[in-house]
């Protein structure tokens, strides 16, 4: 037969090793990635300890952005409700360890009045951590 390759018999155990060995570094890297994400966990901060910023440029250079836990849509009709909603939002941000929140307000006129939409980004500022935790003790 012309140019027929000869394939030697390879035991299954050898093939299994060839498959598992390349997967071992991937699995280790995944475990290290999971450990790395656990190391970015920050201690919870009470709502009173969460500072408000109006832009990301106001936040000190060394900071982490954090995810904001979800909440239902909030509709406020007076200043007291607005203050309560703000406190609840800062409490949610503090629950993930944020020492501050960057709030960007967008207002729109609607048939029933003015509608305010807020974009909120929780931030952890290491240099502000002592102040934030001290605010929670008073």
Q: Would you write up a description of this structure?
A:
This protein folds into two domains: 10-39; 47-137, no CATH class. It starts with 11 loop residues before the first helix and ends with a helix. The protein is 39% helix and 20% strand. The chain has three helices and four strands; from the N terminus they run H-E-E-H-E-E-H. It has 138 residues and is an alpha+beta fold. A hairpin with a 2-residue loop joins strand 3 and strand 4. It has a four-stranded mixed beta sheet with strand order 1-3-4-2, with helices on one face.
Relevant terms:
138 residues, alpha+beta, 2 domains, four-stranded mixed β-sheet, 3 helices, 39% helix
The SS-based structural class is alpha+beta
Mean pLDDT: 76
Strand arrangement in the largest pleated sheet = 1-3-4-2
- Give the helix proportion (percent range): 25-40%
Q: Which percent range describes the beta-strand content?
A: 15-25%
Whole-number count of domains: 2
Radius of gyration: 26 Å
